[in-house]
Design brief:
The complex is a heterodimer of chains A (435) and B (254).
Chain A: H1 5-19, H2 34-40, E1 57-62, E2 80-85, E3 91-97, H3 107-118, E4 122-126, H4 132-137, H5 147-166, E5 172-180, H6 182-197, E6 204-208, H7 214-226, H8 232-252, H9 261-270, H10 275-301, H11 320-327, H12 331-346, H13 352-358, H14 365-370, E7 374-379, H15 389-397, E8 401-404, H16 416-425
Parallel strand pairs in A: 3-4, 3-5, 5-6, 6-7, 7-8
Antiparallel strand pairs in A: 1-2, 2-4
Helix pairs in contact in A: 2-10, 5-6, 7-10, 9-10, 10-11, 10-12
Chain B: H1 3-19, H2 38-41, H3 58-86, H4 89-113, H5 117-132, H6 141-144, H7 154-160, H8 179-195, H9 200-203, H10 210-222, H11 236-253
Helix pairs in contact in B: 3-10, 4-5, 7-8, 7-11
């Protein structure tokens, strides 16, 4: 039975109310544990007014490698989509890089779009290099995951977008860049790359909840699913519980939902399941991304890892078997079975440690220590961080690091104080009247 | 023959032609087998959710899913977006309420056929309140009175009667469905057409339902926050199929 929104709203408020019981650290984000915060994110009433009037954005498409043959059965991914919010007059421009697997949309991207647009920026939202459209249209290798190489791909896209499509339309004073999750780690690499290439001369870049070591974070996320669910039968049992909830929530929205990992999150945001269920859910969302990466990466590089080399693909092909194999391939194997062999083909001496290092911030430690362009916003309880990683960031970034006491992974991004802090880093703020 | 019927016939015929276009993905002859295969990851006694789905016409379904995606990307969604950007909110919600209100007749008779008389009563109440106090359905005071909207259709009714979904079946333009739900849609359409509550057919004898139907379609699209091929997975077809089937199961069981 459908619960009328009328009943649900006070119920939710009640739930949020108990969660918001006064905390001693003076930080007003609800006292949720890290997994719940990651899934639930920020209750509406604790967000600043980020409502936008009308539709101030436009979707652009970029053909990044014109010489590349188009992939017929992925016709929708031959161009890279990106979203632009343009101010009327001269304004600073900020590039926003999405998190792992995400395209230019989703709740976190919406928070960033609305915050920066309302604070007076032109905003340009880019899909993550690990997302399907980016892997097909804009990745030079087809196997994203190394931060230096991903940053080069991103920088190419930024440069082309700016020179070919945006420079005529936007009056830009300064350039900035930010990103959350994996997009945050890429932010640092992009700003560093810009010091050589000097197309934008980025003034500042803010990392929001970056992994320090992508490989470590991915192993943690792999584990959230695969330590709790080991067989197909268990997965089906979990799925049945989940879909029961999901079906109810779907009916609740009258079909107004965004399918995908973000949809899964939306559903559990309203319920209060225990940590194991939350871990599985978070792991599942990541596994859908990893599944897509291993399949698309395999096809793009013709590695024959799960899809035999030279397989004739078509729009009508039954790919259920590949689905099953790739669903049971954790990110660890994407790295070891696909990414590593790809790089070893051109350089047999390259080791796993070299590549893990290139997928981490350790690789640019010296630069991070001394640059005053990069800032950090992170959470002490972020679930993608291994032991000591937050401390390492604090030590490297010094007073440019802001570590919030809680919020899980990106759960507090839309919280008022976080939005204010983020904008203040760029010397901006939301308009006073909140309109 | 009216234009509606002519279009429907054309679409049906072309879908049947497309049915012949099934295919599997074929490894090249003599190609090395993949490094990681089904037998490496799957215990033969274990079950797999995605294999339990009845989808014998996957070739056709995938082709139709793709055609729908193209139609949506290049025509349907841009029209709906334009509609959202040009028409002020109060006009759009007026149209939306109106469309929901005329659909209420389907909710009423289907809820009754499912012996869900409270739902039928609520939908009847909605229809009476919104058609009068709500100025012919342009406003929706019923929801504020606690009479919330619940969509019922003949596919659900059949499901409640114990009819299984049958094979998964992607309909032209309308998207994911099953044989049962597609049949149900036909019955609902016929009922709506012949009951003709508001006397549409008399408004104009030439093309009675084209414009209301188009507006209905645009309104529906504008209120569904879904875009094809934006889920971010190359396996979107399989995910959407699973979600659709689960969702229908839920609608029937609730």
């Amino acid at each position: 039975m459908k619960i009328p929104a009328l009943f649900l709203t006070p119920l939710l408020a009640l739930a949020a109310g108990t969660a918001m019981a006064a905390t001693e650290d003076g930080y007003g984000y609800p006292d949720l544990d890290a997994f719940a915060a990651t899934v639930i994110q920020t209750p509406d009433e604790l967000r600043p007014n980020l409502k936008l009037k009308g539709y101030p954005y436009k979707l652009y498409n970029l053909r990044v490698f014109p010489e590349r043959p188009k992939v017929k059965y992925m016709w929708y991914a031959n161009k890279l989509p990106y979203l632009v919010f343009a101010q009327k007059g001269p304004a600073p421009l900020i590039f926003v890089i999405a998190g792992t697997g995400s395209s230019y949309h989703g709740p976190h991207m919406s928070t960033l779009y609305a915050s920066f647009y309302k604070a007076g920026f032109h905003v340009v939202g880019l899909p993550s290099p690990t997302s399907l459209p980016f892997m097909v249209a804009a990745s030079s290798t087809g196997v994203p995951g190394l931060l230096d190489s991903d940053a080069e791909d991103l920088y190419r896209v930024m440069t082309m977008a700016w020179q070919q499509q945006l420079s005529k339309k936007l009056d830009v004073t300064d350039f900035y860049v930010t990103g959350y999750s994996l997009g945050a780690a890429q932010t640092a690499y992009v700003v560093k790359l810009d010091e050589e290439k000097k197309v934008f001369n980025f003034k500042k870049g803010l990392m929001i909840n970056p992994p320090v070591n992508l490989y470590n974070s991915a192993l943690l996320l792999d584990g959230y699913l695969r330590n709790n669910v080991t067989t197909g039968d268990e997965m089906i049992a979990y799925w049945n519980r989940l879909t029961k909830v999901m079906g109810e929530e779907y009916a609740e929205t009258q079909g107004v939902v965004n399918l995908g990992p973000d949809f899964l999150y939306e559903v559990y945001r309203k319920r209060r399941p225990d940590d194991e269920n939350l871990q599985i859910l978070i792991g599942l969302a990541f596994a859908i991304t990893a599944q897509n990466m291993v399949t698309v990466g395999d096809v793009m590089t013709q590695s024959g890892y799960i899809v035999p080399v030279g397989t004739t693909a078509s729009i009508t092909a039954d790919v259920t078997d590949y689905y099953i194999v790739s669903a049971r391939t954790p990110f660890r194997l994407y790295f070891q079975g696909l990414l590593m062999p790809y790089y070893q083909r051109s350089n047999p001496d390259i080791t796993e440690d070299d590549l893990v290092n290139r997928a981490s911030l350790y690789n640019i430690e010296e630069w991070l220590r001394h640059t005053d362009k990069i800032g950090l916003s992170h959470n002490a309880d972020d679930i993608i961080m291994g032991p000591g990683e937050i401390e390492w960031l604090e030590q490297v970034m010094g007073d440019r690091a802001k570590i919030w006491p809680r919020g899980g992974h990106c759960g507090n991004m839309a919280y008022k104080e976080n939005v204010d802090h983020m904008l203040a880093f760029f010397g901006a703020s939301l308009p006073e009247d909140g309109k | 023959m009216s234009i509606t019927i002519r279009i429907a016939t054309m679409v049906t015929v072309s879908s049947i032609l497309l049915l012949t276009g099934c295919a599997a993905s074929h490894p090249q002859q003599g190609a090395e087998p993949a490094k990681r295969q089904l037998s490496d990851v799957l215990d033969p006694n274990d079950s797999v959710l995605v294999k339990e789905v009845n989808d014998p016409w996957q070739g056709y379904n995938r082709r139709m899913y793709d055609l729908n995606a193209r139609f949506d990307r290049y025509i349907f969604n841009p029209v709906a977006e334009g509609y959202k950007r040009t028409l002020p909110k109060f006009m759009r919600s007026g149209i939306h309420n109106f469309m929901q209100n005329i659909r209420e007749i389907l909710n009423i008779y289907n809820a009754a056929l499912q012996f869900r008389f409270r739902t039928a009563g609520r939908s009847t109440g909605r229809f009476l309140v919104n058609s009068t106090v709500g100025i012919g359905g342009l406003l929706d005071p019923a929801t504020e009175m606690g009479l919330y909207y619940q969509k019922e259709d003949f596919g659900q009714t059949l499901g409640v009667w114990g009819v299984g979904p049958g094979p998964y079946f992607v309909l032209p333009l309308l998207g994911p469905s099953t044989v049962r739900d597609a049949f149900g849609f036909g019955v609902d359409y016929a009922v709506w057409y012949y009951v003709d509550l508001f006397g549409y057919r008399n408004w104009s004898s030439e093309q009675p339902l084209i414009w209301p139907t188009l507006l209905y379609a645009i309104d529906t699209r504008a209120n569904v926050n879904f875009r094809y091929y934006e889920m971010g997975s190359i396996y979107e077809y399989l995910y959407v199929r699973q979600l659709y089937l689960e969702f229908r199961k839920f609608e029937i069981e609730r």
